[in-house]
Batch of 4 targets.
Target 1
Amino acid sequence: MKVAIVSNHAKKSKEVAAELMRLLANAQIPINQEQPTVVITVGGDGTLLSAFHKYHHLIDDVRFIGVHTGHLGFYTDWRDYELGLLVSSLQEDQGQSVSYPLLDVQLTFNDGTASEVQTVLNEATIRNTVRTMVAKVAIKDDCFEMYRGDGLSVSTPTGSTAYSKSLGGAVVHPRVNALQLNEIASINNRVYRSLGSPMIIAPDEWITIELKQDDHYQLHLDHYVRQYRNLCSLKLALSQKRIHFVSYRHTHFWSRVNDAFIGTVKDDD
């Protein structure tokens, strides 16, 4: 086992990361920031997103652990005061893990060239930054609708509790191998019409978004933002790769959802 530590810049997170480093050294667990087999993040879900993109090239060989130093996150199972228990669990590690789906995104440009496939953990969102976005949406290469509105967002099951939820999307259990397509402020009237509802896409299907060329587009891949003038289309599909989390203990998904969005439920009778 080789461990890498990724921390955000908050004072508390840096202190926790330093203590974790000390405990790992005492336990003679090697630190390797370049070729780890376990990545421990200290912070919140944003820190884990950053770590995923940093080590995505090792995705088949690395497992993730999240230590949260603030509010409970969907990717962080451990609290900052449980470092001793975490290190003891690492010493007894037997390779146990749980895996979740990822999203592959491929861009095609006006000159016909295609980008390398880019893999995201939460969602990919495309917007027109200067005017109403016009796009043809196809499912498995069959035209489904002509969309007009602010943009389109495709999320993974774990991403369904993030931006997708704020768009009115369904919360999807991460064991469901599916993607979700959400429209952003779509135009629906007697002239222009699209579905206007979230769509759950099966694992053997893919989404193609064909864009009006030579326009201004903003693409969000998780928390990274890119600007394009020469973007022609996007192909989005469930990735063959998956992210793996160490499962010494794993908080029930619906318990996470309740804690994040609802809280304690009182019996009104």
Note: The chain has a mean pLDDT of 93.
Target 2
Amino acid sequence: MARPEEQDRASLAASLGSTVRRLREGRGWTQQDLADRLYVTPSRVAQVELATDPPNEALAQDLDRVLDAGDELNVAWFHMNRLGHPSWERPYVDLERRACRMRGYAPQLVPGILQTAGYAAALFSVVRPGISDEVLKRLVEARTSRQSLLGGRDPLHLWAVLDETILMRPFGDDESVMRDQLSHLLLTAAQPNVELQILPLEAGHHGMMDGPVTLLEFPDGPGVAYLAGTRGGDLAESPHTVKQYAMIYDRLIFNSLSPEESRDLIRSTLKERYGCPPPPPPPNDT
């Protein structure tokens, strides 16, 4: 028997699919007509409408645009996808979407918002033994969808400090997992709204050795600190506590490699440990 959480997600997927069909038929379009505008197959449109294979975020955005849904489909997708996150993580994910600035320290794992699909899948496979392929797919999609916050017209500003051990530790059953992940870090760090620094081992002990910490700032309210783990997390909202974590974070930045030095270290790790040249920088928009 499906868990209530899975039933809720299936219900939301069915509602999204029904909305797509209503909007499509309202325009007098066949599934082929819609598929042609989306550059997908008619069977993919049918899967969405029947909720047998709900859309990912990119397809949901295309559907909303092509059908001129006024964000109705984007909002529906968000509520459906929200259930892909563990229940303890959802309050944080909601806050993350509202934030204008994020600062975070990661001692052992690449931060969720920067994880590739391969890295996330390898992580979920070991922290949730026996996980089904369907649940794994949903968790990975929910995790990687958070990266969309770093793009768009008003992107989230991210400042991330990663411990050097993250670069050194093999991850996944194949070297390609870390090759892809490190390449992704380099490409993301090239974005103007992203700063990435590495805290070297030589920095010694510091005030965030207990675990990962994320500081969120909002345009319309006080900030929060989030202390996360693989199976739980705690929000700290006290201004005094948030200020303490911010002070510790500032010291971490001071003791970390500069952004350019950090990118050089990732490049050398790719080359020396994985025999892989770094990815070319993204093309300039100018």
Note: The longest strand covers residues 221-228.
Target 3
Amino acid sequence: MLDKESKHKPIKSAIIVSKVYKRPVAGAIREIASFLQSLGVTAYLDQNTSVGFNIPEVPCISRKQMQNQDLIIVVGGDGSVLGAARTLVDLNVPVLGVNRGHLGLLTDVSPSQLHQALTSIVAGRYTKEMRMMLDVRVTRENEDGASELVGQSLATNETVIHSGMLAHMMVFSVSIDDNFMYSLRGDGIIVNTPTGSTAYSLSAGGPIIEPHLDVLSLVPMFPQSLNCSPIIIPGSSAVRIDFERPETPEWININCDGQVTIRGDTNCTVSICQHKTPLTLIHPEGYDYYSVLRQKLGWGQQLF
């Protein structure tokens, strides 16, 4: 959901978060912290960022203390925002992405716009947007018939269920809210949010979905069928995926946002639903989703 109201409460405190990459972002972190302080904002580093960068002039804050702050600023690329979202979404603190990566669909503050954007945001002039996240659980029945948890993760973009081997098909069935949808033979399936519709799903032929819509998308991967198209379902749906069980169980991989992989087998069940807490993103004034698609993905551009 996109909040059209652009005037909000001013920002008084902010936490800077960044992954430790070879990419030199320490200078950017220092610049952001210094500029925030010049605007009267108390700037912190989260504990992981503080350990990874030697910036003693910016105080460190614990995870528990973070929930009382006004803003989380993620410095890096879209992958940095995806990683931060999984671990920080339940704090319910708005997130702003500052782009130091490549594409920047989620990190929409560029280095050239940094000071102007931060000045407006600190003054309360920004747009708020709620982005759905997925809760992914992999379970297996034990010998007593009880369900045991194999793995669990959140995802902002998508979860991809596949065999983990190149060009290796598997057979699985998909149910929505305990209603059987179909059985499929293919390389796997992508279950994505509207945010993830411009990520891996797009490469697999899935539709672009406006991020404020409360829907999920299911995109089969290389199905051995001519009539198995992607489908859009309500965002409140509970998706269940079961696998054909050969005599000897085969490995499957359940990948979340291309960053977390849960290793299971064909005796497992994958359950996917909407996470209880959405990710709150902050955009600078004038944010336009269609403009982002045109600029970042070349959407709608003439070929000749």
Note: The chain has a mean pLDDT of 92.
Target 4
Amino acid sequence: MTPTANRSATVNSAGKTVLITGGTGSFGKTMAKHLLDQGYEQVRIFSRDEWKQEEMRVRMAEPRLRFYIGDVRSRASVDSAMEGVDLVFHAAALKQVPSCEFFPMEAVATNIEGSNNVIESAIAARAECVVCLGTDKAVYPINAMGMTKALMEKVAQSAARRLDPGETRICSVRYGNVMYSRGSVIPLFINQIREGGPLTVTEAAMTRFMLPLRDSVRLVEFAFQNARQGDVFIKKAAACTIGDLIAALQKLFGTNVEVQSIGLRHGEKLHETLASLAEVHRAEDMGDFLRIPMDDRDLNYAKFFSEGEQVSQQLTDYDSESTEQLNVSEVCELLLSLPEVREQLDSWKSLTNVSSTTRDC
């Protein structure tokens, strides 16, 4: 791994138009607000759900925010939203692991074919940069969601290989569990606590990266500012066991509800990996981030037999078991940094007259 300074390029947002696919999700809403605060001229939200778009339109009441109904599976609908766009943040995806296990071809249609539509549309429209949002489940994938997101990365790099300097930059990012995002286990656990339990845990020893939503925005912005063709960017993150996450929530809410083990769900891993050993070997350490360059060798098979890279035996995968592990108090502090958790705690305190000391970590 090569260390470099943690740097960010200067970005001029004036006059820039940004497209966010899947823009009504947790990331899209947070990113849209951030971009508007940064002074971008127009932020376009592209998604299938007109009701979520209407809620977002009313809540944000921002004339620079534009909404496009469409599906990444339809190249025509993507093209209609892409005209005049400078930057693309591609967040549209099927992300629920069990659902993708039962409907893998739907995951293929959205996560692979849909991503290809977005990338090709951006290239045709001469967009400056496309950042594809990935997942730790794409490394050593064992489920359909991870496999299709891994192939999304390959599609992005395939497009990047054929582009010349000065053309659209294509890159990807990977991150783990985004805390309190849609589908996160944290709001589920909080609801179960408020209802008196039981807390349903798949496996208490399971580890997951813990990434606040604000850090996922930082990662995507950093990728846009620093990307070369085909790069994959990772935000370094600490992890914790699900058992410690539950203990931290119980401590914050001042409860001791029953915890019920239900076993692993379809396609779940005990630990997640953000970068394989081979990728760690190639990675550039950029402070809070890792840049994994694409393998840019051409399709000359002789090279794969006569050229290679030695990997240090001291390196390991960058995974949720070997990264920095948060203890219960540290998980408490991280949870309290989330406005959604603080709001839930305030509501809980008003309902139960629980002392504010339950917030102490």
Note: The chain has a mean pLDDT of 91.
